[in-house]
Amino acid sequence: MPLAATTPDVSQLPDYAYDWALVDVETSGLIARRDRILSIAVLTFGPDGVQTGEYSTLLNPGCDPGPVHIHGLTTERLSGAPTFAQVAGRIGALLQDRVMVAHNAQFDYDFLAHEFARARLYLPVTQRLCTLALNRRVEPPAADLSLASLAAHYGVPQTRAHDALDDTRVLAGIFRSSLSEAARLDVPLPLVPCPPRQDAQFAPNPPKTPCAYRNPGRPDPGGPLVQGMKIAVTGETATSRAELVARAVAAGLNIMSSVSRHTSVLVTNDAASGSAKARRAIAEGVPIVDEHTFLELLGEVGPGTPHDNQAAKKTPKALTPEDVPSEELSPEGASPEELSPEDASPKDVSPEAAPSEAATQATVPTTVVEVPHPRPPEPDRSPKPFGRRRILVLGGTHPEAAAARARAVELGGTAAINLSASVTDIVLLPGGERDRRMTRVTALGLPVHARAWLEDPTSAPDSTPASARTDAPARNHVTTAVLPRGGVIDLPALPTAGQWHLGASWAQQPNCEIDVVAFVLDEDEQVSSDGDFVFYGAPESPDGALRLLCDGPTEQTVVVDLAALPPAAHRIAIAAAIDGAATFGDIGAVQTTLAPGVDAPAAARATLDAATSERTLLLAEIYRRGALWRFRAVGQGYDHGLEDLARGYGVDVE
């Protein structure tokens, strides 16, 4: 199936012409560090779209094949197949010097990376491309972004779903069309350098038993230790470290691998050693005790306060206005127009106060949140001028562009941050005519409006073709909630295997990188362990409840499995930080989406661009409210960097 069989040839466009290796794997499960590949198919293509190779094989994993009802690969069928190690050389030769392409590419790449590591071989992939990420940038009017839906949209026949070879052939047709659509829109390809930040060496350690008690802080001088206190140990000890930790955990203490301002005690036999933990403890005023004293204190640990985890077990009840904290209402009931600039964009919060105060300050929405009732109120069906428009703002200063996007949302539309197939209108601010995308806008014939159109949208005729309007209602009637900054929605219950995917995307940046991070916080706005901080160097929490996915240079995703969270988890905070001297005023808007699956339509979307001079942006949070989980679009910026934000939550970033 040539990539360019029925679509324009992109081989003469350097930004789109590569040697490609299209890959699909069927696996015994979903966790690459544990599960195995059962079958694999690889198709290779040249820059001209001509197929140059094909290989597929079943594999004997040496373990239970897992969900046979999905892939149909039984133990008997796989028993005579080769092992991965036996065919790794041939697979490596097909991947060598080519861009690896897959649908949800990080999944396939992670499995390949672990299989090659088990075979003690190097996976020869330097770049990968995800067709899911590519189509998120193209935004075709498909029902969703699953392989089946995209195949139906692009007219690619699919005969045997979950067969590696057939899925790879379907992927070739989808990729062919997606590549041509990207070239038509001048969309940069979301190429990811490899190896990614998630690799075998970053596989999380087995999770420790969560501490059942809240952190009571530091002990009184001469007083006892109390259950829930955070303890760090550094340097040599006469008692083995494993025994010391085991005894502390058995006493109800919380052993941490780093020191922060939330640490209760540092245990060391040499406080003057100059170790990083000792220096940090001295700087933070953390009490320091030697091993002998600590062992004595372990004999009389006082009772602690258990985590308040009963909320999740209570029967949901209807909330009244009195049940809703003031943090979920606009200040003094003010309307968005009445909010002061300080209310709308609080900043310059001190690093020490950032997390605890951010939990309150950053959750002030720009609109009053509706209180749920036993019977949901009828949705607002009043027509709005921009009900199905997706508007891209070009030019202007950052505040001017942010105001224009906010106005578009107020009129019922959605704000785009990149040119895609779903964009219906362009608003041109001063300087926007010099934007490189204007050439494509003209070629596509999209309506271009002056800023005044947003104040009087009836002043310009509706020249947008109906076929170009691809807002959420056209996608299987799935309604996407367009949230303002501070907007909140309740999360519906998902099936047992359901996971929430919180994505963040931005315009491609030539001179800086943006990192998305996540924190699992208890009711005291602290991490319970170092593993509750997920970032590029540790992209998965030990319990698997949080995973960070890198889908390209302009988007990253945090996957949240609410069922796997420890009982102490009350809030997941997701932030973005700039690596470099740029600020979010230079970056522009950051779009966040919440979806109940990797390829599912978005349940909620928010465009966050209130930040100007800030280098760290609290994007969103998922938090408990009684028996419910809720999602909030935050958009709170901080001038300090990621290290200060992390320290405030109880993590010391070295």
Question: Topology, please?
Answer:
Layout: E1 20-27, E2 37-45, E3 51-58, H1 68-71, H2 75-78, H3 84-95, E4 99-102, H4 105-118, E5 127-130, H5 131-138, H6 147-154, H7 164-185, E6 191-193, E7 230-233, H8 241-250, E8 254-256, E9 265-267, H9 276-284, E10 288-289, H10 291-298, H11 341-344, H12 354-361, E11 390-394, H13 398-410, E12 414-416, E13 425-428, H14 438-444, E14 448-450, E15 481-482, E16 488-490, E17 500-506, E18 513-521, E19 533-534, E20 546-552, E21 555-560, E22 571-579, H15 584-587, E23 590-595, E24 604-608, E25 616-625, E26 628-638, H16 642-648
Parallel strand pairs: 1-4, 4-5, 7-8, 7-9, 9-10, 11-12, 11-13, 13-14, 15-24
Antiparallel strand pairs: 1-2, 2-3, 5-6, 16-26, 17-21, 17-23, 18-19, 18-22, 20-21, 22-25, 23-24, 25-26
Helix pairs in contact: 5-7, 6-7
Structural overview:
- The protein has 654 residues and is an alpha/beta fold.
- The chain has 4 domains: 20-200, Ribonuclease H-like superfamily/Ribonuclease H (Nucleotidyltransferase, domain 5); 230-298, Rossmann fold; 390-470, BRCT domain (Rossmann fold); 481-648, Lipoxygenase-1 (Sandwich), CATH 2.60.60.30.
- The chain is built from 16 helices and 26 strands.
- The strands form 5 sheets. The chain has a 6-stranded mixed sheet, sandwiched between helices. A 6-stranded mixed sheet has the order 15-24-23-17-21-20.
- The two termini are 50 Å apart.
